[in-house]
Structure formats: structure tokens, C-alpha cells
Design goal:
Strands 4, 6, 7, 10, 11, 18 and 19 form a seven-stranded mixed beta sheet that branches. The chain has two domains: about 220 residues, Alpha-Beta Complex (Quinone Oxidoreductase, Chain A, domain 1); about 130 residues, NAD(P)-binding Rossmann-like Domain (Rossmann fold, 3-Layer(aba) Sandwich), CATH 3.40.50.720. β1 and β2 form a beta hairpin. It is an alpha/beta fold. The chain has nine helices and 19 strands. Helices cover about 25% and strands about 25% of the residues. It binds nicotinamide-adenine-dinucleotide (NAD) and zinc ion (2 copies).
């Protein structure tokens, strides 16, 4: 089966023909139907974060179950599923205390180190899977606890976006930050993740949703999805001052959806007293964020969010209902649909800031 493989860092993806194993205990073989391009993969392609190589990239995919391992009871062949990298064991202290997105026992849902690899090249080399999913591939072999069943009415080439981007952005607003009705929100960065955070804030009932981006096209898109006020960061050197002016002194919630220490600092500095800044972006591991200590006297808070603090087996079906009843807008977030062969072009478009989400579809 064809898959997009990262073979060096930094590097582009290479389309290779790989062999995929049969499902072992707890595993499910999926025919991929849609795969979204998330910026996290690009961070790895650019070498900002280290990974084992070679590795099939992609972690935002949906498809149809082809075959299941002996003891799999959750799904059966023919079921439609969305994959999520928050693969939970269901038994560790994080899973059992209501935080399966932080599962502390990935071993329980992975193959043993000495077991045959899920993916191999013709010469027998093992090929890893990004986030244990490897979603830029015609087929995926995934642990059942990384999957949620979805109703067939839901188009899979839209459902895939919920697997990472929507769950992350929407969840950051609704779950991690718990945005309250009537409040003021600012989202910095209106890519796939930021646009989902904007939608979360809109559905949670925020009054003002201020959006900051360097691209006017992105700001326009943000306006269709719930943004109410806009700051083009390429046209001002005082983003914080502008947001404070629009919000009348500072926002209740801010979200950083880019992954830069400079914009994390902006997210914190634009808070009203008692406000909460939530960092969603992946800030490069060596980067340091500096804050003024005195600001903590104003009860300002700074927190991280991993995959929107999701409980994806309950969250994703709810988000699908919101899409089907017209409240969660996904069609508007797909800027381009491409073949697997064009995955590097898709990432070039992301680098140029031209797209919200690009989706790979498979015939
Ligand atoms: N926390 C998590 O669990 C999680 C999950 C998925 C993705 N992420 C991270 O979220 C971040 C965003 O991902 P994405 O797929 O939406 O990326 P994206 O490239 O689609 O969007 C980033 C947006 O930021 C804008 N931007 C860039 N520099 C800016 C600046 N200085 N000021 C204002 N806007 C600026 C770009 O124009 C673009 O619209 C990435 O760092 C990604 O790795 C985190
Ligand atoms: Zn992602
Ligand atoms: Zn666990």
C-alpha cells in the first residue's frame, strides 16, 4: 500500500510502497478515506522536533474498518471510524481520573518492541507511524482505543478533520479553558486549529471573538466561522495594544494556535485580570517563554492544552451531530482536496499560509 514517508529531518515526504501487517490483538486494519494536513507533521518535517525514521506521517484520518484482531469487540469490518492520537489504555491513573488524552501507559496500546513491525519496506526495514497512526497512507493499522465509530451519514473526508484539528481547537475552548457564555476571547493564529477554537468559543456563547493572524485571507475565513473582530499582525507592531483596545482592557480567554514563544507572550499579556491564556501551538522544545512575574498578582493564568483535553469517544460523535445540524462548520475549513502524491505541495500551501485545511482523499 502507498504511504507518505519521512526519511530524513529536515525533509520532504517520499511516497513508498509498504507492506502492512495483519491486525494483532487489539488492532484494527483500516482503509483510509480522508486525511487532513496538520501543522504538527510540518514541525517534524522541518526538524523542529525529533522523531524515529523512517516514519509514515499523518495523524488526522478517517476510514472504513477492513479487518480486526481476534479480541477486538469495539468495531467490525465495514464500520466507519475516525482515528485520534489520544490512544487510551483505560487503566492508568490519567485515564481513570478522567484524562484519557494524557494516558500514561502507551505500551499497553502499542506492539512490543521485539514484535514484528506494523509497517515494513520490501527489504524488511521497519517503518514507524506518526502518533502511532500513520494516517498519510492507503491503509492504517491502529489500536482499537485510538478509534471512534461514526455514523455512516457523516462524510469521512470531512470527519477526518475532527480526528486532530477540530478536537484540538474546539476542545481547547470548550474543555481545557471552559469558555463561559458572554465572555471575550482572542484566538492568535487562524489555521485549522485556531479556526476550530473560534468555533468552540462561538458555540460556547462568547460575546466577542477577536482573531489575530498575519494573513487577511485567514481573517476573512475566521469571520465566516465566528470571529467578530480582527487584527492583522503584519500591519501592526502592537497586537496586544489593539486587542486590549477592542476588548476594553483585556480578554477573558486567549488561545495561542501557532507555536511561537513570541505569540505565547502576546496571549498572556492581552489578558484581563483573572483571565486565562491557553497554549495550543507546539513551541519548539528549545524555546523559552518569558513572563513578567508581577502579572500573577492579577490572577492571570497560563496553561497548555493537549489534543483539546479530549475524551474523544464521547466528544467526536457530539461534534459530528453539531456538523450535521449546521452548527460546527467543516466544509468551510477545507481549502483544498488533493491526492496522496501531492502531499508535499499541500504542505507548501500551508507554509505560504494559503489554506485552512487540506484534505488528502483516497480512491
Ligand atoms: N496542543 C495540541 O495538542 C496540538 C494538536 C494539533 C496541532 N497543534 C499545533 O497547533 C499549531 C497550529 O496548527 P495548524 O495546523 O492550525 O497550523 P496552520 O499553519 O494551519 O496555522 C497557523 C496560523 O498562524 C498564522 N501565523 C503565523 N505566524 C503568526 C504570527 N506571528 N501572528 C499571527 N498569526 C500567525 C498563520 O498565518 C496561520 O494561519 C501548530 O503548532 C501545531 O503543531 C497542537
Ligand atoms: Zn494535529
Ligand atoms: Zn491510560
Amino acid at each position: 500500500m502507498k504511504a507518505a514517508v519521512l526519511t530524513e529531518q529536515p525533509g520532504d515526504l517520499v511516497i513508498e510502497d509498504l507492506t502492512i501487517d495483519r491486525p494483532g490483538p487489539g488492532e484494527v486494519l483500516i482503509q483510509t478515506v480522508g486525511a487532513g494536513l496538520c501543522h504538527s507533521d510540518l514541525h517534524f518535517m522541518e526538524g523542529l522536533f525529533r522523531t524515529t525514521l523512517p516514519i509514515v506521517m499523518g495523524h488526522e484520518s478517517a476510514g472504513i474498518v477492513q479487518a480486526v484482531g481476534d479480541d477486538v469487540t469495539y468495531v467490525k469490518p465495514g464500520d466507519h471510524v475516525v482515528a485520534c492520537l489520544s490512544i487510551f489504555c483505560g487503566q492508568c491513573h490519567q485515564c481513570l481520573s478522567g484524562h484519557p488524552n494524557r494516558c500514561a501507559n502507551p505500551k499497553a496500546t502499542s506492539r512490543a518492541k521485539d514484535a514484528p513491525a506494523r509497517l515494513t519496506r520490501a527489504d524488511g526495514t521497519a517503518v514507524d507511524q506518526m502518533a502511532r497512526l500513520g494516517g498519510f497512507a492507503e491503509e492504517m493499522l491502529v489500536h482499537q482505543n485510538g478509534l471512534v465509530k461514526v455514523i455512516e451519514e457523516m462524510p469521512l473526508e470531512k470527519a477526518c478533520l475532527i480526528g486532530c484539528g477540530i478536537t484540538t481547537g474546539f476542545g481547547a475552548a470548550v474543555r481545557t479553558a471552559n469558555v463561559q457564555v458572554g465572555t471575550t476571547v482572542c484566538v492568535i493564529g487562524a489555521g485549522g486549529i485556531g479556526l476550530a477554537a473560534i468555533q468552540g468559543a462561538r458555540i460556547a456563547g462568547a460575546n466577542k471573538i477577536i482573531v489575530v493572524d498575519v494573513s487577511s485571507a485567514k481573517l476573512e475565513m475566521a469571520g465566516q466561522l465566528g470571529g467578530t473582530h480582527f487584527v492583522n499582525a503584519s500591519e501592526t507592531d502592537d497586537v496586544v495594544g489593539e486587542v486590549k483596545e477592542i476588548s476594553g482592557g483585556g480578554v477573558d480567554y486567549s488561545f495561542e494556535a501557532i507555536g511561537k514563544s513570541q505569540t505565547v507572550r502576546q496571549a498572556f499579556d492581552m489578558l484581563a485580570m483573572g483571565g486565562t491564556a491557553t497554549v495550543i501551538g507546539m513551541v519548539p522544545s528549545k524555546d523559552v517563554v518569558e513572563l513578567r512575574g508581577i502579572d500573577f498578582l492579577q490572577e492571570k493564568k497560563l496553561q497548555g492544552s493537549m489534543m483539546g483535553s479530549n475524551q474523544f469517544r464521547t466528544d467526536i460523535p457530539r461534534m459530528i451531530e453539531m456538523y450535521l445540524d449546521g452548527r460546527l462548520l467543516l466544509d468551510e475549513m477545507v481549502s483544498a482536496t488533493i491526492d496522496l502524491d501531492a502531499v508535499n505541495d499541500g504542505y507548501e500551501m500551508m507554509k505560504r499560509g494559503e489554506v485552512a485545511r487540506t484534505v488528502i482523499t483516497f480512491d
